[in-house]
């Protein structure tokens, strides 16, 4: 029993002191995790101060601190300097956004997938590649350095993103998620902190959680990471890096302006922090803005991937690494992948060096704009964010609607969308909004049906 009586004293969490084979701090951390899972402690709850919990349990404050630290590394709770410790808002949200098989017919508008349509140009490139390859090298393991032609083709791809990179800084990974994993594993260590937008890509969240890296939400200005927020996070949270998607940010579809890109680059150089710049959506834009990496190349890991703008199955990404981290990142990629596929590299290089690449990108953009015009017409009068070139949109819900519950109700009606809680970082309650994948439905008819279901759910919300 606790020494002090807390019977009539309000505490948001009243754990039990458990004696078992585990250390006391581990037992306390396990209890908090289970109480959150059971709904005894809800997302966003402010936990009792550490000294108060220590008095309640009649234990040392250091034991509570160790328990909180363990939970913080798992992403379960989040501390804010001067305000206390809170249960993370995304703690009960599913972070894996891969489409699932459902027992009933569901219109997929959650996962961001490019539109599927026949691509005769790719078929022709693939046919020629198979016919011309007589040595069988493309079916063999790829060891050592990537061939010069492959590397130069990848650099030409990166330059289409408006980044003037060099072959000497190029590494190739099996897709954008794989690139992020390699960077986190090769450059950072458990306990390091990385700043992000308050709403960010869930793939980063799952990787950080697995590797014991803490994500810190950076305060924004006009929907973009602010310099004041960066300064605060450097001073109070000791962040080592920031992760940004400047072009069609996931999930808000925001495009970062050029002055903010330059300011972030200047801040990173001055304060010696790293930047992970994810340009996964860049080639969807007709008028491409200069990336942050152009202004801080020695601080920036630049990722350019094929999946959203070219072919989803072409699992390749180019990483332009600062020279001082090149060997660490190369070793990280080797440990994750061993090597890249010669078959995939050959196909990608042929697509890049033919007229096929520009045709694919132009056609994707044209078809995406057509779909978005439909969405704009159907959702006229609603607060829908994002450009017509973006393959997903960000719909701000009316104040009375709770987004997580809205996601559940819409799913029951036959449409999969994703609520803001899935993207949330930290202890602040996210804006009530949903991300809608415009190009995931199999055709325009399915897209229209999905939008009607979403719109009907809003209009009939009780």
What does this structure look like?
By secondary structure, the protein is an alpha/beta fold. The protein contains 14 helices and 17 strands. The chain has helices at residues 24-37, 50-57, 61-73, 120-132, 148-160, 176-187, 202-211, 227-237, 258-271, 326-337, 342-353, 356-378, 403-412, 444-459, and strands at residues 77-80, 84-87, 107-108, 170-173, 193-196, 214-217, 220-221, 224-225, 241-244, 274-278, 300-305, 317-320, 383-385, 392-396, 415-416, 418-419, 433-437. The strands form five sheets. It has a seven-stranded mixed sheet, with helices on both faces. A four-stranded antiparallel sheet has the order 13-14-17-16. Strands 1-2 form a two-stranded antiparallel ribbon. Helix 1 (24-37) crosses helix 3, helix 5 crosses helix 11 (342-353) and helix 6 packs across helix 10. The longest helix has 23 residues, at 356-378. The relative contact order is 0.14. The mean pLDDT is 89.
Q: Could you estimate the helical fraction of the residues in percent? A: 25-40%
How big is the Rg?
A: 24 Å
Q: How large a portion of the residues is in β-strands, by DSSP E?
A: 5-15%
Low-confidence stretches: none
Total strand count, please?
Answer: 17
How is the largest sheet built, in terms of strand order?
A: 4-12-11-10-9-5-6
The DSSP helix count reads 14
Mean pLDDT: 89
Ends: how far apart? 46 Å
Shape: globular
The largest sheet is: 7 strands, mixed
Oligomer: single chain
Secondary-structure-based class equals alpha/beta
